[in-house]
Specification:
- This protein is of the alpha/beta class.
- It contains 17 helices and 17 strands.
- The protein has a seven-stranded parallel beta sheet with strand order 7-10-11-12-13-14-17. A six-stranded mixed beta sheet has the order 2-1-3-4-5-6. Strands 8-9 form a two-stranded antiparallel sheet.
- Strand 13, helix 15 and strand 14 form a beta-alpha-beta unit.
- Helix 12 packs across helix 14.
- The two termini are 44 Å apart.
Length: 441
Amino acid sequence: MPPLGGGMEIIMKICLISINTQKFPSPVVPIGASIIYNTLKKENEVDFYDLCFLSEDYVLHKIEKTDYEVICISIRNLDNENMNHSESYLPVYKSFVNKIRKVFHKKIILGGAGFNVMPKAVLDYLEADIGFYGEGEEKICEVVRNCNNNEWLKQQTYIVTLYDVDKNYMFYKCNIKENPIQPEITCYDEKYHCSQKGIQPSISIQTRRGCSYYCSYCKTPIIEGDKIRMKNISDVISELHHIENCGFDEVFFVDNVFNFPRDYAETLCKEMIREKINLKWMGYFVPQNFTPDFAELLARSGCNKLQFGTDHLCDYMLRKLYKTYTFKDIQVANKVCQDAGMICVHSILFGAFGETNETIIECMKRLIDLQPNIAFINSGIRLYDRTPITSQIEVDRERNRLFPEFYFSEKVNIEQARSDINFYIDCLKDVNKKIKIINSF
C-alpha cells in the first residue's frame, strides 16, 4: 500500500493478514479485517494480505523482506461446522503461524469472529502473543502501539495473552452508531468481482450487530450480546454507494437478522430506493411477520434473494430449536417473497435435541409443499459452550471444544434418515426440476 499523504507521520509498519482460504459457496470478502485495515492505515503503514487468493509462500516472502513491527491475523472460522465432512482449519492456521515465527520475531496479534468464539483456547493453540477479544476498530491502534507494554496489556479486559491466569475477559463492543468505519474495498482482489455470481454475493455489508434471538445452537448472542446495535442509516447508504463505485453490482447484508428490528429494515429499504442504490442484494431473514407489502418493499429496494435460517419445518422441532415462528409463518414468508419475484433459500438442520426419523420425514414432506428455490440440508449441531443446547443435553462443561464436537439426536436411525431424505429430494426434483438442493446429510 502507498505511504500516507499529507505529511502525516507513520507510527508503525504493520502486516495484516486475513487467514481464511475457503471459497464455498463463494469467496467471502474479509469485511472485519478490511475495517481494521481502514482503521490502522489512518496512522500507520499497513500491508493487507488475503489468503483467499494469495499463497502462504508469497505472504511469507513479503514478511521476510519487510521490516514489520507487528503482524495482525484475522480469523474468520475455526472449522466448517459440518458433522459428516468435518474439517478443522486450526492445524492449517498453526502451521502458517509456525512458518511466520521462523522469519518474524516480534509480536503476533489475533482477532476476528473465529477467534472470539474461544479466545484463550485459540491463542494458546496457535501460540500467538496477543488476542483481541471483541470488535477491534475503536481500539486496535492503541493495542498495536502498546503491544510490547505487558503492564498495559494486563489491564485491558479485552486483551488475551499466553500468560493470563484466571483473567476475566470481557468482549469489547464498539459504538457503531457514533463511530462508523467503512471497510476498505479498493484493496480487494479483482477475483472477488469474478466470483460473485454464485449462491451468495462475495461483497458484504453489516448494518447492525448483536442478536435478540436465542436459537438453541447459536453462539452469536453470547459473543455479540442480545442487544441489537445499529448503524445510522445515512452511514449505511454511504457505504452502499462506495460499494457501487468500486464496481460491484451485488451485496450481501450479513446482519444476523435483516428484518429485525422491522422498522429499521423498512426505513433502510425506503432510503435505498430514494437514493437510487443500484445493487442487487440478499440477506439473512427470520421467516416471521411477512406481508405482501413488506416483500414488495424488499424487492423494490433491490433484494433478489432471501436466506431464511429456517432450520426445520416441523413445529415440534422448531420449538426444540427455540424458534419463535411456525411452519405457517414459513409458508407465508416463502409465498409472498416468491410472488414478489425473489429467490427463497432455506437452510434445514437435522439432528437437534428431540429429532426423530418421523420429524425428519415430516420436514421433508413439508419441504415439497414449500417449494423453495434453493435448500441446504445439513445435519448435526456443532457444540459451543454456553449455547442453549448445552442445557438440553448432558455435556462435559469443562471440556475444551476448540476442535469440532457435534450432537446428533440418539433417537434417529441415521442410515434410514439418509435414505428417507434422498427419497424426498428425488420427489422434490420431480415436482420442480429447477430447484437447487445442497445435501450435506
